[in-house]
Amino acid sequence: MNRFPPISLIGVPTDIGAGHRGALMGPDALRVADIDKVLRARGLEVADRGNLSGPVNPWLPPEDGYRHLDGVIEWNRLTMEAVYAELSEGRLPIMMGGDHCLATGSITAVARYCREQGRKLRILWLDAHTDFNTSELTPSGNIHGMPVACLCGHGPKGLTELGGSKPAIDPSMVRQIGIRSVDEGEKKFVHEAGLEVYDMRYIDEFGMKRAMEEALTGLDKNTHLHVSFDVDFLDPSIAPGVGTTVQGGPNYREAQLCMEMIADTGRMGSLDVVELNPAYDDHNRTAEVAVDLVESLFGKSTLIRG
Ligand SMILES: [Mn+2]
């Protein structure tokens, strides 16, 4: 018997916040890799809500430190509404990006839902990057490098106040895992904000097991666990299909252990799978690895446990 509510797949096909084109094909690549069938085979009820429809990516240079700000806000508003609607019906939304800017919308929705329900929120941010840039710190203006900052109240009004109040979350709710590429100014800001980061140096020294034990400390029955899985979290040798590959990420077994330990908590209530970029992939193998890991998040383990 599984212990998960019914799942809703929400495709958000845009690369409006990214520095490379192609993540807009992510939702369909996950479907081609049978994300729905794999979850149904685990006994879960799955509804695929199809893709949201928003503005096309105009592919313009940044203005005042932000690239495509209006379009990013619109896509995030759509994402927030879709994710909130599913949570309100007692379902578990899987937001299939799309680039990582969309986590602003999905997590704003999750945070609002948790506030209304009087539930605690823990966010696991699995990523090569901290995504804690601001318009002053960013070298590129790409908003997919800013969602954690926006959620914590640092950024343009249209994103920080997406849910009506600011900030959407407190940095103390966030645990970042797999980090190995942080911009210079961003580094200082991450420390000032007090984000809890388990970077690759930590994982090298103490192992994924210890990192996850720490990151999952303090969860209780009243905690909603949100997982924001940026596929570039993974080492590029197993996941080449992303726009921003960074060497030295978790290998297949480390990533599986990470997902299995999340599953063991039984607390996951929402999930983002983002930055999958089929334009950089090899015969959809990154999508297949991502689906494999999603399966582990929902309780598939290598060995049968008693
Ligand atoms: Mn990211």
From TrEMBL:
Question: Where on this chain does Mn(2+) 2 bind?
Answer: D232
Annotated GO MF terms: arginase activity; manganese ion binding
Q: Which SUPFAM superfamilies match?
A: Arginase/deacetylase
Q: How is the cofactor bound?
A: Binds 2 manganese ions per subunit.
Q: List the pathway annotation.
A: Nitrogen metabolism; urea cycle; L-ornithine and urea from L-arginine: step 1/1
| Family matches, as InterPro entries | Arginase (IPR014033), Ureohydrolase (IPR006035), Ureohydrolase_dom_sf (IPR023696), Ureohydrolase_Mn_BS (IPR020855)
EC number(s) in its UniProt entry? 3.5.3.1
Which keywords does this Swiss-Prot/TrEMBL entry list? Arginine metabolism, Hydrolase, Manganese, Metal-binding
The Gene Ontology biological process annotation of the record reads: arginine metabolic process; urea cycle
Question: Which positions bind Mn(2+) 1?
Answer: H100, D127, H129, D131, D230
Catalysed reaction(s)?
L-arginine + H2O = urea + L-ornithine
GO cellular component terms given for this protein:
cytoplasm
Tell me the cofactors it needs.
Mn(2+)
Top-level enzyme category: hydrolase
The similarity annotation says:
Belongs to the arginase family.
Q: What PANTHER family does its record include?
A: ARGINASE
NCBIfam families in the record: rocF_arginase
Name it.
Answer: Arginase
* Naturally occurring in which organism (per UniProt): Oleiagrimonas citrea
